[in-house]
Amino acid sequence: MTTPTAEIERQTAADILDPPKIPTELDGRRPEQRAPVGDWRVWLMHPGRRWGKGYAASRWIVDRVRTGEARSIALVGSTIRSVRQLMIEHPTSGILAVDPLARFMRSDGEIHWPNGAKAYVCSAENSNKPPLRGGGFDTGWGDEVDSWGLDTTARKAKEAWDNLSLSMSAGDSRLAVTSTPQPGRIVAALIARAKAEHDVSITTGSTYDNAANLSPQFIKDIERRFKGTRLERREIYGEVPEDVVGSLWQPGVFWYRNVKPDQCLRVAVGVDPSGGGDAIGIVAAGQLGPELFVVLDDWTTTGSPAKWARRTNELAEKWGADVVVAERNYGGDMVLATLKAASMQMPVRMVTASRGKHIRADPISLLYEQKKIAHRSGDAALDLLEEELRFMTTTGYVGEGSPNRADAAVWAFWELTKPRKTWGVA
What we know:
Layout: H1 4-17, E1 42-45, H2 53-67, E2 72-77, H3 80-88, H4 95-98, E3 103-105, E4 110-112, E5 118-123, E6 139-143, H5 148-151, H6 154-167, E7 174-178, H7 186-197, E8 200-203, H8 216-226, H9 231-235, E9 256-257, E10 266-272, E11 281-289, E12 292-298, H10 305-319, E13 323-327, H11 333-341, E14 348-351, H12 357-369, E15 373-376, H13 383-390, E16 392-393, E17 396-397, H14 404-417
Parallel strand pairs: 1-7, 1-8, 2-5, 2-6, 6-7, 9-15, 10-13, 12-15, 13-14
Antiparallel strand pairs: 3-4, 4-5, 10-11, 11-12, 16-17
Helix pairs in contact: 10-11, 12-14, 13-14
């Protein structure tokens, strides 16, 4: 006679040897979210935002665990926190959400499966430490690889990618890479590798492919932010940004750091009023040291003079700005009067553009090359500004519309970097 305890032990042993399958009705993958067939080494997914690449990667990881192909798995994100929140514990697309058999050992930074497979939490912030360095993995997932430098450094991002690639050394090792593409980074290199070595399989698509699982409000929000801009192709359709011939801001020139208001020695807000229906550039920049500067925020907006003046004032107050620098070419004294009417408490300095935008921008771009200008990480939305800077070339601006964000940033840095008068003691 079989006792209840013996029956439980028998069922548990059976589950370990032949774990039950997740019911197929819970698997909501579209055909393009399934792993490609063939002898590939890297599966690169670079679709538009919210296409479902995280869900596809989680399902792929679980598939390999269930078939026994995955025994040692690397989960790599920008930070340990991002791995936990996005790759493991996300309520709809994380590994725990798609596999009830997975057990997350939070204190150890590991996921355990009944059949003995293990996944290890790794991060770019710990790029040169085990388990990422020398892990000997048969399966890996690198998430948002082109953004690893935002929360760490470009050096650590590259080091993390190199260590992940070199750690894929066990059995028929396979690596999934999910990322919104950025110019001149890992995704671009993998696309070039796919053409040269044919060991990278590429999947892409648009935000609209996953519209059935997205709220109508999200679709409206992403269209409001990106529709009609060059970033629409990247953020909504997942296209890799093209190189810009002669750009003053080459790929890889941007780097990021956390900044608090009390760290800034001085703050300037640049304002570039438009000559028509274009956006009004409003960018705050700060000085952190004798030769170290940072872009703090881009609050560029459209609308009435009262609206953009109010936004300028709010941004200046947020960072405790020392001065607002505004171009007078469009609007003249009206610009100054509008800013003063918005209860502007700090000085307003009016400047006149006597040279072309690209000539004015050139010395500022050199500071970027010398790593003397960073961009604030965290909640700073600087992607549209970075896109305008990329299209500023040695012969002029070749992007769409007018580079009002870029011009506002340049004016702020001209103010912060100009020689200051010093007074000696007689």
